[in-house]
Hints:
- By secondary structure, this protein is mostly beta strands.
- The chain has two domains: 2-166, no CATH class; 171-280, Cyclophilin (Beta Barrel).
- It has helices at 34-43, 167-170, 187-195, 261-267; strands spanning 2-6, 10-14, 52-56, 60-64, 68-76, 80-81, 84-85, 92-94, 99-102, 107-115, 145-146, 173-178, 198-204, 208-212, 225-226, 231-234, 240-243, 250-251, 255-259, 275-280.
- The strands form four sheets. Strands 12-19-16-17-14-13-20 form a seven-stranded mixed barrel. Strands 7-6-9-4-1-11 form a six-stranded antiparallel β-sheet, with no helix packed on it.
- A hairpin with a 5-residue loop joins strand 16 and strand 17 (240-243).
Amino acid sequence: MIRVIAPGFFTSIQDLGRFEYVDIGVPNAGVMDRYSAQLANHIIGNSPQDALVEIGLGKTILLFEKETIICICGADFSAKVNEELIDLNRSILVSKKDILTFDKPSYGARVYLAVKGGIQTNKVLGSRSFYRGITQQALLKKEDVLPIENLKNAKEQRNASVKIDRDHITDRNLLVYPGPEYELLSFKQKTQLRTVLFSISSDNNRMGYRLEGVIENDLPSMLTSAVLPGTVQLTPSGRFIILMRDCQVTGGYPRVLQLSEMAINKLAQKATGDKIQFILERQV
C-alpha cells in the first residue's frame, strides 16, 4: 500500500484512458503526458497501460507501507526518499516506511510516479483514470490508500535508467496539422497562426489550455462537431482553446488545428506564462 500523507494540488491516478465510450459522451481522460508516463512504466518493466500517480505542481508526500520498485519521469519536482534526492528516469527500490516527497517544480508541470505492477485502484469503464463524474473522486486526498502489488523479489529491480533530452519539457514548438475548419481561414489568419508566439493563460487544466494572444476571427458560427484531445478551437473573440485529455467529445468552435500526439505531451508540461509556437506539418 501507499498512503497519501499530503496530496499536493493536482494529484490523481491515471492510465492511458478510456477509448470505447465516446458515443455516450465519456471523455478519454488518461495521463496528460503519455511520453513521460509510458517511459516510467517501461523502465521498471510495467505494461504501458498500468496506472500511475500523476502529480501537478508538487507538494506531495507519500508513505510506502510495503517494499516496491518505483520510477519517476516527467517534470523535476526535486523528488526525495527520506529527504535524499533521487534521480529521474531510473529504477529505484524503496523499502517499507520510506517517505517519498515532491517539492515545487524546477522545470515542467507534471511528474509521473510508476510503481512495480501499477497502482491497483478500481477500474471504471475499463480504466483506473480519475475523472469527475465518472470515478468517485477526481483528485487524491489526505489519507487515501493506494493498493499496489507485493514485490516478489527485490532482485526484480532492473537497475535501469534512461537519459532523455530535456527539450521534451522545455521546447516551445508544437507540431500541428490543419484542422477541419483550417481552410476557412484567410491567408492573413494562417500567417498569424504560424508566426505569433502565444502564452499559456492562467486558465489551464486537464480539460484544456486557453492561450493569451488574439488573431482576427470573422469565421461563421458552426454546428457542434466532434473534437479530440489536441484540437485547437478558435473562439469568437479571436482567442484559442487547446483541448486536453479530459476534454468533452463535441464542441461548437471552429477546429482550426490539431496537435500531434507528441505536441499534446509537450503542452502538458507547460504552465501559466510559458510560451508556445505552432509549427504546421503542412504549410498551406
